[in-house]
Amino acid sequence: MTSTPAPRPVLADLSVGDVVATAALEVDRSRLVRYAGASGDLNPIHWNERVATEVGLPGVIAHGMWTMGAAVTVVADWAGDPGAVVDYGVRFTRPVPVPDPGAATVAVSAAVGAIDADAGTARIDLTVTCDGARVLGKAQAVVRLG
Questions:
Q1: Please, which residues bridge with residue 87 across strands?
Q2: pLDDT tens readout for residues 9-64
Q3: Half-sphere exposure (CA, 13 Å, Cβ side) for 69?
Q4: What is the H or E stretch that residue 50 is in?
Q5: Nearest to 129 by CA among 110, 143, 101
Q6: Is cis: bond before 101, omega within 30 of 0?
Q7: How far apart are CA 84 and CA 49, in angstroms?
Q8: CA 82 – CA 1 distance, rounded (Å)
Q9: What's the pTM value of the predicted model, to 2 decimals?
């Protein structure tokens, strides 16, 4: 069975305020361990409950870079091409506690914040939360669209 890819967004069809994508992203402890190995960030606050609580955290927390990267995939998927994301930045505001057993859910909503028709780009503003609290602030991606 084959599927037809979604059409790529067109800049002229967007308006400031349009919500272009939403997602609920799950992260569990096994994903954190795999991410630690892949990224080289082996800080035990991302996999060891005792160490995390000893340094004042509520427990094991997700890597900030995992959270940042997972959030922008929502924009890349909407754009239809990860290369369309030409700029991306965030401010880390709160950690994402990851329970054991279970998983944390990171909610992402992406909305058009600005359009630059001359440059052919849209600024996509991301709202990224976990348990109702913002975990990334000023999360913005600039996407080049046809």
A1: 142
A2: 999 999 999 999 999 999 999 999 999 999 999 999 999 999 999 999 999 999 99
A3: 8
A4: helix 49-54
A5: 110
A6: yes
A7: 38
A8: 25
A9: 0.92
